[in-house]
Design brief:
Elements lengths: L6 H20 L10 H16 L10 H25 L2 H13 L5 E3 L6 E3 H16 L2 H15 L12 H38 L5 H19 L1 H22 L3
Antiparallel strand pairs: 1-2
Length: about 250
């Protein structure tokens, strides 16, 4: 008995796994070294098998057509993954701004996701927004955008995404939200520096530089806890903006 392997569904799943895999690698939730690579591969194939379904377009029949189709899937995955990577890096940038003002830039460790040095303040901001991202079901938005991209740009088709304008404005959006996230604590630090400068000017005998740094550090920690709602609001707006950008990039 001869078994005929259906190539069209197999090629469709493999090409779809390329698109899903690129997005998963660039997501902060599952893109780090804490998630084993075989698990990401299995997850990519599972999601691709569930989302692609029956091939809607003509499957590539030659090696050159297969390479072009694979490049298209990689491009579609990069568009969605790049939006997630850039917009979700806003809290890390906000933490770098605060760490620069606090003088904590020298105390940095290596982020296992990006292999880049990151301060403790950036890690706190990034972890906080990641928890907000999960609570607000942002990962569902990413999966929904992936599913919409397969419906709008099916595997085997030759159309390309038209929402490239979202990529051009993502860097500016990241910087804007980074400033909004860091603004409350940055304002407290600025006022504290002004008060210490006035004390130094008024009473030179106090030696403000001796206790000024630990005082600013304690004040910033208390202010970070008290002003967390003002940090969470732009974080939620950032997640909503990410959802809109994903929908636009996916052709919705």
């Amino acid at each position: 008995m001869n078994f005929v392997l259906p190539l069209a569904p197999l090629i469709c799943t493999l090409l779809g796994a390329l698109r899903v895999g690129v997005v998963l690698v660039m997501l902060p939730v599952v893109g780090g070294t804490g998630v084993p690579s075989p698990l990401r591969v299995l997850l990519s194939f599972g999601l691709a098998l569930a989302m692609t379904g029956v091939p809607a377009g003509a499957m590539p029949e030659t090696a050159s057509a297969l390479v072009l189709a694979a490049g298209r899937e990689l491009l579609l995955g990069l568009v969605l993954g790049f939006l997630c990577q850039v917009l979700l890096s806003a809290p890390a940038l906000a933490g770098e701004l605060v760490a620069q003002e606090l003088g904590l830039k020298m105390a940095e460790d290596v982020d296992p996701t990006t292999r880049m040095p990151m301060s403790a303040v950036s890690r706190v901001y990034e972890t906080s927004l990641l928890l907000l991202f999960l609570v607000a079901q942002g990962h569902h938005d990413v999966l929904r955008a992936l599913h919409e991209s397969f419906a709008r740009f099916p595997v085997g088709d030759t159309s390309l995404p038209t929402g490239m304008a979202a990529l051009a404005g993502s860097a500016g959006t990241c910087l804007r939200f980074a400033v909004m996230i860091a603004a409350p604590l940055f304002a407290v630090l600025l006022c504290g520096s002004l008060v210490l400068a006035l004390l130094t000017r008024a009473v030179p005998e106090l030696h403000v530089m001796t206790f000024g740094y630990p005082l600013r550090l304690l004040a910033s920690m208390a202010a970070a806890v008290a002003l967390f709602p003002f940090v969470a609001q732009p974080g939620l707006r950032l997640i909503a903006g990410l959802q809109r950008a994903l929908v636009a990039a996916a052709g919705g």
